[in-house]
Amino acid sequence: xxxxxxxxxxxxxxxxxxxxxxxxxxxxxxxxxxxxxxxxxxxxxxxxxxxxxxxxxxxxxxxxxxxxxxxxxxxxxxxxxxxxxxxxxxxxxxxxxxxxxxxxxxxxxxxxxxxxxxxxxxxxxxxxxxxxxxxxxxxxxxxxxxxxxxxxxxxxxxxxxxxxxxxxxxxxxxxxxxxxxxxxxxxxxxxxxxxxxxxxxxxxxxxxxxxxxxxxxxxxxxxxxxxxxxxxxxxxxxxxxxxxxxxxxxxxxxxxxxxxxxxxxxxxxxxxxxxxxxxxxxxxxxxxxxxxxxxxxxxxxxxxxxxxxxxxxxxxxxxxxxxxxxxxxxxxxxxxxxxxxxxxxxxxxxxxxxxxxxxxxxxxxxxxxxxxxxxxxxxxxxxxxxxxxxxxxxxxxxxxxxxxxxxxxxxxxxxxxxxxxxxxxxxxxxxxxxxxxxxxxxxxxxxxxxxxxxxxxxxxxxxxxxxxxxxxxxxxxxxxxxxxxxxx
Amino acid sequence: xxxxxxxxxxxxxxxxxxxxxxxxxxxxxxxxxxxxxxxxxxxxxxxxxxxxxxxxxxxxxxxxxxxxxxxxxxxxxxxxxxxxxxxxxxxxxxxxxxxxxxxxxxxxxxxxxxxxxxxxxxxxxxxxxxxxxxxxxxxxxxxxxxxxxxxxxxxxxxxxxxxxxxxxxxxxxxxxxxxxxxxxxxxxxxxxxxxxxxxxxxxxxxxxxxxxxxxxxxxxxxxxxxxxxxxxxxxxxxxxxxxxxxxxxxxxxxxxxxxxxxxxxxxxxxxxxxxxxxxxxxxxxxxxxxxxxxxxxxxxxxxxxxxxxxxxxxxxxxxxxxxxxxxxxxxxxxxxxxxxxxxxxxxxxxxxxxxxxxxxxxxxxxxxxxxxxxxxxxxxxxxxxxxxxxxxxxxxxxxxxxxxxxxxxxxxxxxxxxxxxxxxxxxxxxxxxxxxxxxxxxxxxxxxxxx
Lengths: 488, 451
Description:
The complex is a heterodimer.
Chain A: H1 2-16, E1 20-38, E2 41-59, E3 62-68, H2 73-90, E4 107-111, H3 123-138, E5 146-162, E6 167-184, E7 190-195, E8 202-205, H4 209-214, H5 216-231, E9 239-245, H6 247-259, H7 264-268, H8 272-275, E10 297-300, E11 321-326, E12 329-330, H9 337-343, E13 352-353, E14 362-363, E15 368-370, H10 378-383, E16 387-399, E17 405-417, E18 420-425, E19 428-433, H11 434-439, E20 441-444, E21 451-460, E22 465-473, E23 476-485
Parallel strand pairs in A: 4-6, 9-16
Antiparallel strand pairs in A: 1-2, 1-5, 2-3, 5-6, 6-7, 6-8, 9-23, 10-11, 10-15, 11-12, 13-14, 16-17, 17-18, 17-19, 19-23, 20-23, 21-22
Helix pairs in contact in A: 1-2, 3-5
Chain B: H1 3-17, E1 21-37, E2 40-58, E3 62-68, H2 73-89, H3 113-116, H4 120-136, E4 140-156, E5 161-176, E6 181-188, H5 196-209, E7 219-225, H6 227-241, H7 244-249, E8 269-271, E9 295-299, E10 302-303, H8 310-316, E11 338-340, H9 347-352, E12 356-371, E13 376-389, E14 392-396, E15 400-405, H10 406-411, E16 413-424, E17 432-448
Parallel strand pairs in B: 7-12
Antiparallel strand pairs in B: 1-2, 1-4, 2-3, 4-5, 5-6, 7-17, 8-9, 8-11, 9-10, 12-13, 13-14, 13-15, 15-17, 16-17
Helix pairs in contact in B: 1-2, 4-5
């Protein structure tokens, strides 16, 4: 495929030269497995294979993109011709010409680290892991409750070639599993608890060893009992309180209010039509106080185990750590070759990623990580808090079109009085405004609590693209946050 | 590929597989999407995409599924074999009723030549005029113009043979100035029916009106919600509460409340993919090959029902309503063509009924999972939020966050427009939700966007 695409671009350039200023082609083959168990039934045992070629052409100063899932050479050839046609159609509308930041074309290959290949594990073994976890959830749940378990695997192979001479092959594998339990009280109250996170479970880059480390069965009893207890728990109190966020919720907070906010295409206004822009502007770089001095955030596509880990992005830019916030000050953006050139940055930050071959690459998060602090463990942080709320596991999320005003709901919360968790409270929500919230952060727990959380379904672009991204975080405390209950 | 071609390939693959129970769903999309921002066309794509979902059932209802993008006979056969392998390891699924049998075709008008044949240059020419108009105003435009043709077929060993060809054309325009923005959008099967010039003028007018917005304190305000705002709330209600799975597990706002009053008596909501009016979008059958029925969901404020696929219907002892999604059972059935009944008012009437309130063009980033049993949702206003004073539309208002129960809010509706608009739905192949603008008393705003 690499040679076929290479030839294609050479011929494209020869045929349309000097019209074609730049072109790249990506072949992507995606193999997935999805397992879902609901109570004791397997409601999904599904395998997916998709492949295709996407071709991006810069011609007459404008972009054209075309893609096909038909891998016959004639179909790929036709897609390339269509990409040129689309670029020329784009050029009918007046625009400033596209410039790309310089990038050394690389010839390289990369395979992400993994232990045992999950696609070689017998399907029955995988199903049994989920069924056993569901059995533990159901034991004592009552007839109206629901136990769910899930497992996902994704193996993605890519070839990238460009008219500049890049030839890159990559092979990444990620996956994991999770459980959740919905308890329904006598009065119809329904409360869910999940482990380790609400939506995707615990997903990381790696192999079958990820599932063993999660210990789904070992966590099932706690998950079930908390769901049952929440049905009769009091509502989360309202007012301004010190708020401790556990790791997975803090990861989503980073995602929504730091990751998306620092995407340079949003900042420059080119993604405005779907999910909005950002409150940040290029001129804030180096001076804007994003958070308190203990906040360090880095976009790191080299972080081991992250869902946003790779060797080269979908423009062929090598992965490297890019600081976004340093001691509370905005110092960087997630960028592409085009956006980097536009604001005068030497090099792209290497954040261009596409959801498969049939979608054009966009600026996406990689692993946007909040570095650990020195506040010890979560229990140390609780002991250090006089009057607060600890919230865990996301339930709902919403943020405005400039990534400023947010509101999150969580599955569970615990009231903290004088350094002790006192009682479980239900339907907790909290709200804030991004820089004010991050400036109120006064304690981040240490490396022992830090891990990279994976999100598989970050949506962006039109047509919608779902991207897998990572967020390293350890529990942290925020002072005087507006908290309350979704049902006071 | 023609309808006969697609059906023949699927039938041939099933025949070669030699299995007793197989279901194939195939979608072939030809999609052209032109995205613009900063008043320039900056993303322009032509995508030719095939997806085939195969399901195989073994004895006792053991089901496996697979998906492939390879639409050749061998590719489809490979997908069937993958699904069969998955099925062999799966425990039986209780109440599996088998795959869909044959049923009469119920075609609806869903295809338009102008959309199917639109080229990248056609879209660029339409946008060139619109963007020039925005540029003349010294404003900034972003948005999309999209044309899609979907060929969809379903074949089962139980006899279902379905094919439909549908087109969808959508335009969404955001016009922004230094401190305001305006939105206008339209969705139709026929590109020629989209008046992009009118949308441009409307978005410009909204943007101009919203300049120098005033900040309002959070609190309860009477609101006039445009159809785009209404459909976004309804879509979340559909996702969280209007499918049989959510009723089965008890998380739906309708669980245990069917045949009881759940909202205001003016509310009549149905899912209807069979609508043949200009507003009708979506395919006449679902991913299992069952004809989609018109399903009353709320009638006169009373919970009337939810939508079903074959497994959930069998469990409930009733027929499927034709609302299965492609792929595995776990996703559950979902409505994707909601129709909220029209009222008898004009937009001016609704605004005239408000002494002091807020006009909302659309919402941003709504989340309907805050408290699904009460259908509590939160989100922000966006792209055209205006003050209404003494029955007249006034100046712009800084965007606000709402948090309210949709069902409780619908109790407080005092009027709806005769005119309705179709807005694309997320979880469908070209489906749309249809709603009028509505007037809601005392809608709860809980936060403002800080400077």
